[in-house]
Amino acid sequence: MSTLIFTLPMQAANGSPLPQHVLSTQEAGPRDKEIWAVVPAAALSWQLVTLPSGLHRQTQRLQTVLHSLLEESLLDDTEHLHLALQPKWQAGQTAWVAVCNKAWLKAHIDQLQASGHRVHRIVPEWTPVPDSAGPAMSAWVCGTPEAPQLWVQHANAAWHLPLQAGLQHWTEQGHKTAPADGSHIPLNLSLQAAPAVADLALKALSTLQASAPNAVSERLRTWRIQVTPALSRYRLAAESNWDLAQFEFAAHGSARWRQNLRRTWQNLAHKPEWRAARWCAGLLLVTQLAGLNISAWQLNAQATAQKDAQKSILKQTFPHVTVVDAPLQMAKEVRQLQGSSGALSTRDLEHVLHALGHALPADQHISGIDYLAQGQTDTKLQGLQLSATQAPAFAQALRAQGLDAQVSGGQWRITPLKEAP
Q1: For the segment 372-401, what is each residue's pLDDT rounded down to a tens digit?
Q2: Are 121 and 259 in contact (CB under 8 A)?
Q3: Listed residue (113, 106, 98, 124) closest to 41, CA to CA
Q4: Interacting residues of 393 by C-beta distance below 8 A, sequence separation 6+
Q5: For burial by CB atoms within 10 Å, which of 114, 312, 322, 355 has the most?
Q6: What is the 3-state secondary structure (H, E, C) of 114-145?
Q7: DSSP character for 86?
Q8: 400: part of which helix (H) or strand (E)?
């Protein structure tokens, strides 16, 4: 499956060229292609809210609640902004809300769709990391060498500033609210940096390490700059499960169901953390196939052994017969022996009449008998009307004599048990 990634420019879409795109290295047919729109970090702001208890996932009510929670903290009117909640949010708990200009986002999405690119997912370029999903602090340096930007998430807050101003603000906040021993600073923190500003990020980190007190400086020296190219950053953003396609931008009905199913399948098929599950599923499938083949082989062996036993019995009993269909030939030879010896069988009318004489209730009479001996032996009784209590006893008595009795439309039909339908 291939993923076509469009990065949305900061300027408005009206009159601008199509957003720039990058195609992932995993190729597939066009029917398997998924299209993502990446929202630049500079186009988003992040707000942390506490969701009220009992909040349900109805779109209209959820959107109204978010507008109410953020009305005072946002500079612009909430009606002009697009809000998106973090994945797997829970009522009564804190959650991150991504905020961007609604008209700007809609113009770019409409432009992509007008060009034949139906967007399946809207991904933020940078996201704050929830406490339960990663480290308590994260930072990212992006922009150009002339205007580098620092993005920081820590202490239930997310902000961005120009690199130098951001480092100064970060340091001042740490001195005011943190203990002097620097225990609040995480060890071995990896700061992501775009390739264009990686050197500036390294110099800024060195400056921060040098200007900090000794206890804090020792912990800062464990920090590292991780150069993250654009495509790698987009993949990291996609792994966060964030999707800004919510509310009026959300896919509806079967489209959303297909997207979720396809994304789940891709995760199961390709994600490293699911490798053990894939191996287990493969081994289970191989084991089941092997078990089915063994069972089929055993059943075939039993059927072959039974056919061989039938052929052997037929050859031992009637040596002059050339075996073609052992069960059918055995029945034919037995009937011929019975006929030549004068013994009655369940196919003979005399046997049927004798059985009827014993099974028929004393107060019942038969007005006619229709006997057919060609092919399947069939005896039909005319005028026999048995009560609901007499019928089961009549059928049971005939069964003891090797005959099957069935009634249909008031007419009884008598056949040998082996020939009963």
Answers
A1: 876 677 888 888 888 888 888 888 888 888
A2: yes
A3: 124
A4: 361
A5: 355
A6: HCCCCCCEEEECCCCCCCCCCCCEEEEEEEEC
A7: P
A8: helix 390-400
Task: Single out the residue of 108, 100, 103, 8 nearest to residue 47, CA to CA.
Answer: 100
Q: How far is it, in rounded angstroms, from Cα 337 to Cα 331?
A: 10
Residues 248 and 323 in one domain: no
Which strand (E) or helix (H) includes residue 97?
strand 94-101
State the total domains in the chain: 4
Q: Looking at residues 292-308, what average pLDDT do you find?
A: 91
Tokens of 311: 């052929």
Q: Is 192 exposed, middle or buried (0-12, 13-18, 19+ CB in 10 A)?
A: buried
The answer to whether the beta carbons of residues 212 and 223 sit under 8 Å apart is no
Per-residue pLDDT tens for 320-358? 888 888 888 887 787 777 666 666 667 777 888 888 888
Residue 187: closest CA among 136, 246, 228: 136
**Whether pTM exceeds 0.85:** no
Structural domain of 399: 345-419
- CA distances in angstroms from 322 to 311, 316, 339, listed in the order given: 10, 12, 21
Question: Do 47 and 177 fall into the same domain?
Answer: no
The residue length of the chain stands at 421
Distance CA 324, CA 115 (A): 72
Buried b (16+ CB within 10 A) or exposed e, 124-138: bbbbbbbeeeeeebb
pLDDT of res. 98: 92
How far, in Å, CA of 41 to CA of 5, rounded?
15
> Do 121 and 132 lie in a common domain?
no
Same domain, 67 and 209: no
C-alpha to C-alpha distance for 419 and 9, rounded to whole angstroms? 83
